[in-house]
Amino acid sequence: MEMAFKRNIEALDDIFSFIDNFIDNNEFDDAITFATRLVVEEIFTNLVRHNEGGLEHISIFLDSDEQCLTIKLQDFNVDPVEIPKAVPVGVDKPLSEREPGGLGIHLVKSIVDKLTYEYKDRTLTVTAIKCLGGK
User: Fold this and answer.
1) Boundaries of every domain in the chain
2) Is 73:44 a contact under the CB 8 Å cutoff?
């Protein structure tokens, strides 16, 4: 399934409806439902908040087979972006010693099996793969 959503945090209700429809059609359990919603919300909000330029819409693609769930978000006509590095977030440090930012992507990386970023021709594609272990 693929759908485009307005580049606005207010689109999250429509996005969650889209995800729920996909989940219902695939009969995923609560853990996969939670992971899918969290991953899409975190990546979508990061694209809206941090990408310069961009069209009015961001595309979200969801697909699955027996082994994997694929979540892909594409942000079109955006300026080059700094791809998040695999820098560990100091979750063991007290709040006063932590750098702001990065916790959401850290959480996404801990939930999915693979997270990739590709920037080409002014399009940023973020793909998350979650192994299902047999629906």
Assistant:
1) 2-131
2) yes
